[in-house]
TrEMBL record:
Residues 67-389 form the Beta-lactamase-related domain. Signal peptide: none annotated. It comes from the Bacteria. This is CubicO group peptidase (Beta-lactamase class C family). It comes from Tahibacter aquaticus. The lineage of its organism: Bacteria, Pseudomonadati, Pseudomonadota, Gammaproteobacteria, Lysobacterales. GO terms for molecular function: peptidase activity. Transmembrane segments: none annotated. GO terms for biological process: proteolysis; regulation of lipid metabolic process. Pfam families: Beta-lactamase.
Length: 423
């Protein structure tokens, strides 16, 4: 009788090493299957906090249940909203939890990831430099970024900001985990964070197509940094955040303890789990900010009131960018904003322009929209990662209708968008 030979020690070591390598490469997939917890009991009711203008009491009373219904239907840990009209906040409301594990309640100043809503901030920083004559949107990127590798065709800042530059989106990488989107590396500089896309070949001739790309948009932040001769985040703070007094808007820095930062979750009808831990230093200009609905409304009011740059510059950045053949880009995309012409409001009784930029981040979702003709701004944030923003869009539209139905005193001149493309 013979006994089976035991596997050699080196084979066992090799198998363990391969298993560890597979785990590190595909960690988000493995991690999704553990860490789930049962959702907190629905009673007592989740905490809520509110600041409201009594003139809009009727609209607020009708809007509040809409948020509650959406929170319950989507099992959101927390949801927060703010509405601004005529340059001031008229409602701010937060309901639910900043952290489910400890039942820490949301406050009106709780900081959420805003995902791609960040692009509107980078757009504002760029607009300031363009108005000052420091950036030519149609100059080759190498004018400002000499380290941007030469391509088969020229690439401009305008094309980068309108997602028509031919630059790739998130991809696989030689990193842990293997997906760039789930980055865990802390980048010391924006140049370092954009090095991979700067060196990569273009996927198509610039101007020929529209393909949304956050890694490509990061190059707009690199241009801001180069022209301002200042770290991107420092310039954003000095030029945009501080002038508008956005006290709770900052980079989502994984290396800093930030007491106001909420927990970020994936949720189902049965429970919740913390999302995969990421480091957003690979996307500061395109998706790396934290903010609050109140700060976002204050930001929107500042744009509408020309507090950062003039109306002509705003018009340039709010003009949807055609492709090289003159056709519409198919996404209503301007320069860091989406501009939807003549959308229905008030149950279809009126039409108006809507300027927006939503965001989906790891563990959070953002709706941010401006109604220039009505001088209204609205932001809705949640600390759950939704697959799309359609539910927040629908909620936003319903809330806007409620507030626009309230009679208002004579308002300042509405912001009108030109029907003629401006470049």
């Amino acid at each position: 009788m013979t006994t089976a030979r035991r596997p050699r020690w080196w084979l066992r070591v090799l198998l363990c090493a391969l298993a560890l390598l597979a785990f590190k490469l595909f960690e988000p997939v493995f991690a999704y299957h553990w860490g789930w917890r049962e959702a907190p009991a629905s009673t007592p009711l989740p905490p809520q906090v509110e600041a409201a203008d009594p003139a809009y009491a009727q609209a607020i009373s009708a809007a509040r249940p809409l948020l509650v219904q959406l929170q319950q239907r989507l099992h959101l840990p927390g949801i927060a909203i703010a509405v601004g009209l005529d340059g001031r906040e008229v409602w701010a409301y937060s309901r639910g939890y900043a952290e489910l594990e400890t039942l820490k309640p949301l406050s009106l100043d709780s900081q959420f990831r805003i995902g791609s809503t960040t692009k509107a901030f980078t757009s504002a920083a760029m607009a300031i430099l363009v108005q000052a004559g420091k950036v030519d949107l149609d100059a080759p990127l190498q004018t400002y970024l000499p380290w941007f590798a030469p391509k088969e065709w020229p690439v401009t800042t305008r094309q980068v900001m309108s997602h028509s530059a031919g630059i790739r989106d998130y991809s696989l990488c030689l990193c842990f985990p293997i997906w760039e989107y789930y980055n865990r590396r802390h980048f010391a500089s924006l140049r370092e964070a954009t090095a991979a896309v700067a060196a990569a070949p273009l996927e198509y001739r610039p101007g020929r197509d529209f393909r949304y790309t956050s890694p490509g948009y990061n190059l707009a932040g690199a241009v801001v940094e180069a022209v301002a001769q200042q770290d991107f985040l420092a310039y954003l703070d000095a030029a945009v955040i501080q002038p508008l007094q956005l006290a709770h808007t900052a980079a989502d820095d994984a290396l800093r303890e930030m007491p106001g930062r909420v927990g970020f979750y994936e949720v189902t009808s049965d429970g919740y789990r913390r999302t995969f831990r990421v480091d957003n230093s690979n996307k500061w200009p395109s998706g790396g900010l934290l903010s609050t609905p109140r700060d976002l409304v204050r930001f929107g009011n500042g744009i509408l009131d020309n507090r950062l740059y003039d109306a002509a510059t705003r018009e340039r950045f709010w003009t949807p960018q055609p492709l090289a053949d003159g056709k519409d880009n198919g996404d209503d995309y301007a320069l860091g904003w989406r501009v939807h012409r003549q959308r229905e409001i008030l149950g279809g009784r009126q039409r108006t322009d809507v300027v927006s930029h939503n965001g989906v981040a790891t563990g959070a979702t953002s709706r941010f929209a401006l109604y220039p003709q009505q001088r209204l701004s609205i932001s809705i944030l949640t600390n759950a990662q939704l697959s799309t923003t359609k539910d927040l869009n629908a909620l936003s539209n319903a809330v806007v209708d409620l507030f626009l139905a309230v009679p208002r005193p004579a308002q300042a001149e509405p912001v009108k968008l030109s029907a003629v493309p401006a470049r």
